[in-house]
């Protein structure tokens, strides 16, 4: 099971490195639930953190519906992430009915896979109206990871549904539990068979690096 830290600063990257996190999800604007970071931020963080950096590809925080120009921008952002030594990208497109936008995701996954980048479908999944059907579509699109809180506000609230989709997915995709993950619930989440835990360590201008240590202790 991996430990993934959601970060938005170079300080976050240094803390993830110090405490040997397996992976970071790099974003900007965490107060907007994470947008695509700048080139300079990607460059500095991939230098500071020696594990895998996965870059958020999200041009706006107005839902998960993207127009033609935004899709072109996302494709370019994927290329930039690769150029700056990222190992993966994180995205998810829905249509106006909050269902998986098959064609847009297919286009983005193809671009990422051509560049040998891993793909994570982010918590747009938790807004899907037909989650089991959406899970199967995400798997068929060849995403490597699914980040989810089990369609609840926090992963511990959605723990039973996360357990259900782990069983349904049957190792066809890696499941990453995220939202509200901390030392008090990490062990319970780890015991249901998730492939990773995802949590934010830098927010509001400060870095809580002890959170990594506390969660690691909790799941030993």
Which key phrases capture this entry?
220 residues; two-stranded antiparallel sheet
Overall description:
By secondary structure, the protein is an alpha/beta fold. It has 8 helices and 10 strands. The strands form 2 sheets. Strands 1-2-3-4-5-6-7-8 form an 8-stranded parallel β-barrel, surrounded by 5 helices. Strands 9-10 form a two-stranded antiparallel sheet. The longest helix has 16 residues. The radius of gyration is 16 Å and the shape is globular. The model has no long low-confidence stretch (mean pLDDT 96).
Concise account of the structure shown:
This protein has 220 residues and is of the alpha/beta class.
What is the strand and helix layout of this fold?
Blueprint: E1 2-7, H1 10-18, E2 23-26, H2 39-48, E3 52-56, H3 68-83, E4 88-91, H4 102-114, E5 118-121, H5 131-140, E6 145-148, H6 159-169, E7 174-178, H7 186-190, E8 196-200, E9 202-203, E10 206-207, H8 210-218
Parallel strand pairs: 1-2, 1-8, 2-3, 3-4, 4-5, 5-6, 6-7, 7-8
Antiparallel strand pairs: 9-10
């Amino acid at each position: 099971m991996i430990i993934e830290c959601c970060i938005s600063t170079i300080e976050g990257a240094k803390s993830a490195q110090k405490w040997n996190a397996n992976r970071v999800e790099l974003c900007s604007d965490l107060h907007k639930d994470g947008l695509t970071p700048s080139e300079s931020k990607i460059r500095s963080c991939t230098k500071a953190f020696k594990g895998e950096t996965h870059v958020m590809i999200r041009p706006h925080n107005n839902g998960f519906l993207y127009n033609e120009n935004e899709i072109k921008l996302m494709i370019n952002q994927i290329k930039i992430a690769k150029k700056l030594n990222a190992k993966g990208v994180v995205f998810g497109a829905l249509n106006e009915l909050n269902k998986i936008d098959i064609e847009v995701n297919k286009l983005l996954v193809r671009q990422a896979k051509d560049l040998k980048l891993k793909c994570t479908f982010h918590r747009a999944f938790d807004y899907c109206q037909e989650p089991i059907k959406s899970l199967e579509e995400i798997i068929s699109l060849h995403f490597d990871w699914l980040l989810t809180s089990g369609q609840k506000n926090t992963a511990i609230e959605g723990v039973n549904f996360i357990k259900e989709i782990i069983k349904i997915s049957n190792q066809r995709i890696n499941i990453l539990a995220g939202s509200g993950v901390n030392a008090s619930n990490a062990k319970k989440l780890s015991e249901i068979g998730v492939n990773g835990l995802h949590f934010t360590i830098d927010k509001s201008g400060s870095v809580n690096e002890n959170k990594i240590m506390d969660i690691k202790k909790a799941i030993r």
